[in-house]
C-alpha cells in the first residue's frame, strides 16, 4: 500500500495522481520509493520508469524539508541539535530540579521519605500545581491527591498560588487552578485498596490525571498492623531472634509478615498504573528509628558455641547494605550520628516496589536559647539520575513554598553551629 500521504501529510500528490493507484495496487511503500531502484518499482507497478523517478525525487525532497522543520522547532525551544526534552514535573526551584535530574518523571513510582515537619506535604502540594503547567515545567494535566491522614489543605494551595515566585507571576489562563486538583481521603486500608483499584484508574482516564499523590503510604499499614507492644520490632528486617523477644513482639512480627503480600500487590498495581497510563505516582513515607549492631548486641542472646561463627560477611548483611538505599545510613561524617540511625517505614519489601526514593532530611540545631531546623533534599536512587552527593541540596519552607538556601546562608549556618558546639 502506498503510504505517502500518511508519512508526509503535506505532500503535493496532484502531479502523480495517474500513477499512485498503480503503486497502491502493487503495495509500493514510501520506503520502497526512496530505497528501491526506479526501474524495479516501474516493472512491479507497470508504470513509466521516468514517472517513478520523478516521484522518488519529490518524496526525498519532501522528507528533507520535513526534517529541517523539526530541527528548527527543536532549536527554538532551547534544545541542542538532536536533544529532546524529557517530560517531567518541576519543583519550580532550579537548584532542586537540577539535583533531581530535571524533575520527577512520569512512568515511575517515586517515594518522598522524611520525618514529621521536614516538609513532605509542602513538597507534594507544589507538585499538585506544577503538574498543570505545560512542558517543560509540567505535564499539562490534572492531579489526584489521596490522603490517608489530614485532608488536602486548599488554604495552603491558594497561598502558594498567590505567593510562589513562579506561580504568582503567571497570567490567569496559564495559572494552575484548584479545579484541576482532585482529592479523596482513605481512612483505613480496606477503603484505600478499593479506591486505588477501582476508582483511581477511572479518574485517571476520564480527568486526564498525570500525577497521583498518596500522602502517606505507610499510615494505614501501620494503623492496621502495628501494635502498642511492638517495642523494638518496628524494623521489618530486625536481626533479633524470635527466641529473645517476648510473645507480644512475636505477634507483631507475624503481622508484619502478613502485610508483606499486600505491599507487594499494591506496589505491582502502582507500577503497572504508572507505566500503562504514563503518569507520575508520588507517595510520601514516614521514617522510623533503626538499630545498629551495637544496639542489637545489648539484648540477651543464648551463648554461642565456640565453633560457630556468622555465615554472612559483615559487608553483605542488611545493616551494612541498607545505608545505600534508605537515604540515611550514608550521610557525611559531619552530620550528627543519630540522623544515620533512621530508615523509611515498611522496610525492604516496600523499597523493592518503588522506582525512586527521595529523602528529606532535617537536623535541629541549638543556637543559644533557641532551636533552628535545617533541611536537605537528596536523591537516594532513581533510574533517570545519579544519587546525590553528600547530604544533597539545603532548602527552607517559606510562605511561597520550598526554596533552596543560598550557599552563603548555608555556610553561615554551619559556622554558627560550629561556634555553638565549641561553647
TrEMBL record:
Residues 85-287 form the RecA family profile domain. Keywords: ATP-binding, Nucleotide-binding. Residues 228-258 are annotated as: Disordered. GO terms for molecular function: ATP binding; ATP-dependent DNA damage sensor activity; DNA strand exchange activity; double-stranded DNA binding; single-stranded DNA binding. InterPro entries: AAA+_ATPase, P-loop_NTPase, Rad51_C, RecA_ATP-bd. One of its GO terms (biological process) is meiosis I cell cycle process. Pfam families: Rad51. SMART domains: AAA (SM00382). PANTHER family: RE19845P (PTHR22942:SF66), RECA/RAD51/RADA DNA STRAND-PAIRING FAMILY MEMBER (PTHR22942). This is RecA family profile 1 domain-containing protein. It comes from Verruconis gallopava. The lineage of its organism: Eukaryota, Fungi, Dikarya, Ascomycota, Pezizomycotina.
Amino acid at each position: 500500500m502506498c503510504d505517502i500521504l500518511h508519512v508526509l501529510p503535506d505532500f503535493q500528490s496532484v502531479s502523480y495522481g495517474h500513477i499512485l493507484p498503480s503503486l497502491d495496487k502493487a503495495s509500493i511503500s514510501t520506503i520502497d520509493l526512496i530505497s528501491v531502484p526506479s526501474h524495479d518499482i516501474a516493472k512491479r507497478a507497470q508504470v513509466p520508469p521516468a514517472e517513478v523517478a520523478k516521484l522518488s525525487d519529490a518524496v526525498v525532497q519532501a522528507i528533507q524539508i520535513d526534517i529541517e522543520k523539526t530541527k528548527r522547532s527543536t532549536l527554538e525551544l532551547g534544545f541542542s541539535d538532536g536533544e529532546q526534552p524529557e517530560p517531567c514535573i518541576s519543583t519550580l526551584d532550579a537548584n532542586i530540579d537540577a539535583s533531581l535530574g530535571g524533575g520527577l518523571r512520569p512512568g515511575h513510582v517515586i517515594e518522598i521519605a522524611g520525618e514529621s515537619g521536614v516538609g513532605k506535604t509542602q513538597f507534594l502540594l507544589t507538585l499538585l500545581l506544577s503538574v498543570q503547567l505545560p512542558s517543560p515545567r509540567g505535564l499539562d494535566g490534572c492531579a489526584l491527591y489521596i490522603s490517608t491522614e489530614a485532608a488536602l489543605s486548599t488554604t495552603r494551595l491558594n497561598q502558594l498560588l498567590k505567593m510562589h515566585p513562579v506561580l504568582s507571576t503567571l497570567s490567569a489562563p496559564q495559572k494552575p487552578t484548584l479545579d484541576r486538583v482532585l482529592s479523596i481521603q482513605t481512612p483505613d486500608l480496606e477503603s484505600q485498596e478499593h479506591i486505588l483499584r477501582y476508582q483511581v484508574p477511572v479518574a485517571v482516564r476520564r480527568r486526564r490525571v498525570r500525577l497521583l499523590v498518596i500522602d502517606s503510604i505507610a499510615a494505614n499499614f501501620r494503623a492496621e498492623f502495628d501494635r502498642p507492644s511492638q517495642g523494638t520490632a518496628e524494623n521489618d528486617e530486625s536481626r533479633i531472634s524470635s527466641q529473645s523477644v517476648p510473645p507480644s513482639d512475636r505477634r507483631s512480627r507475624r503481622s508484619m509478615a502478613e502485610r508483606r503480600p499486600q505491599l507487594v500487590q499494591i506496589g505491582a498495581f502502582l507500577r503497572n498504573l504508572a507505566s500503562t497510563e504514563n503518569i507520575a505516582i508520588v507517595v510520601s513515607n514516614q521514617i522510623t528509628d533503626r538499630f545498629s549492631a551495637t544496639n542489637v548486641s545489648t539484648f540477651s542472646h543464648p551463648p554461642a558455641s565456640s565453633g560457630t561463627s556468622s555465615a554472612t560477611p559483615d559487608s553483605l548483611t542488611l545493616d551494612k547494605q541498607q545505608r545505600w538505599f534508605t537515604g540515611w545510613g550514608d550521610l557525611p561524617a559531619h552530620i550528627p550520628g543519630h540522623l544515620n540511625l533512621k530508615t523509611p517505614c515498611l522496610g525492604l519489601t516496600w523499597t523493592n516496589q518503588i522506582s525512586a526514593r527521595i529523602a528529606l532530611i532535617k537536623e535541629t540545631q541549638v543556637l543559644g536559647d533557641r532551636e533552628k531546623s535545617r533541611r536537605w533534599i537528596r536523591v537516594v536512587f532513581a533510574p533517570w539520575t545519579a544519587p546525590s552527593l553528600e547530604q544533597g541540596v539545603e532548602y527552607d519552607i517559606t510562605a511561597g513554598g520550598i526554596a533552596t538556601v543560598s550557599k552563603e546562608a548555608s555556610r553561615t549556618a554551619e559556622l554558627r553551629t560550629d561556634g555553638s558546639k565549641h561553647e
